[in-house]
Amino acid sequence: MLEDMRRIVRFLEKNQKTVSTMESCTGGGFANLITNVGGASDVFHFSAVTYSNEFKIKIGVSKEIIEKYSVYSQEVANAMSEAISLFSNSDYGVGITGMLNVIDPKNPVDKKNKVYISIYDREQKNFYQSEVEVHEFVRYRNKNTVLKEVVRLFLEILS
């Protein structure tokens, strides 16, 4: 995955683009992958781990979207990616939300073990989306599955 992250960072550098992330269930994992690459400080603006709804809302996700669709939804992932892009003035915003085999009694869930990914392109005003189902009983394995999909989606956007 490190080589793929190098490709992402080099592309962003070459094209003078920036990225920020708002992650929930991955706990900052994608931000960590970016910062493992030398030169990331030229393209990486900001990261927020918004594990609670309260902080998603503080960064700019509409409370109404969370209430209407649930925090475990593509709509919320889209709102997260757009909000973090605007909040940090980044060209790309990454939003990740979902469930990794643990039920949160504060948030209703329709589909267990599904994670929603959104990458927002501010210039094009476009959302790139993906969903991942995770079924491992070890959380870090589920996180790695999700992170691989985020990297794959980002590479697809940049190619």
* CATH H-level superfamily: CinA-like
How many distinct helices?
A: 6
> What is the N-to-C succession of helices and strands?
HEHEHHHEEEH
Low-pLDDT parts are: none
- Per CATH, which architecture? Alpha-Beta Complex
Which strand-content bin applies to the residues? 15-25%
Task: Count the beta strands.
Answer: 5
**CATH fold name:** Maf protein
> For this structure, what is the CATH class?
Alpha Beta
**Could you estimate the helical fraction of the residues in percent?**
40-55%
The value of Rg in angstroms is 15 Å
Biggest sheet: strand arrangement: 2-1-3-4-5
**Mean residue pLDDT:** 93
Largest sheet: 5 strands, mixed
In one word, what is the shape?
globular
Structural class: alpha/beta
Distance between the termini: 17 Å
Number of separate structural domains: 1
Task: Write a concise keyword list for the protein shown above.
159 residues; 43% helix; Maf protein; 21% strand
Please, could you describe this protein's structure?
This protein is α/β, with parallel strands linked by helices and 159 residues long. The chain has one domain (2-158): CinA-like (Maf protein), CATH 3.90.950.20. 43% of the residues lie in helices and 21% in strands. It has six helices and five strands. Strands 2-1-3-4-5 form a five-stranded mixed sheet. β4 and β5 (126-133) form a beta hairpin. The radius of gyration is 15 Å and the shape is globular. The model has no long low-confidence stretch (mean pLDDT 93).
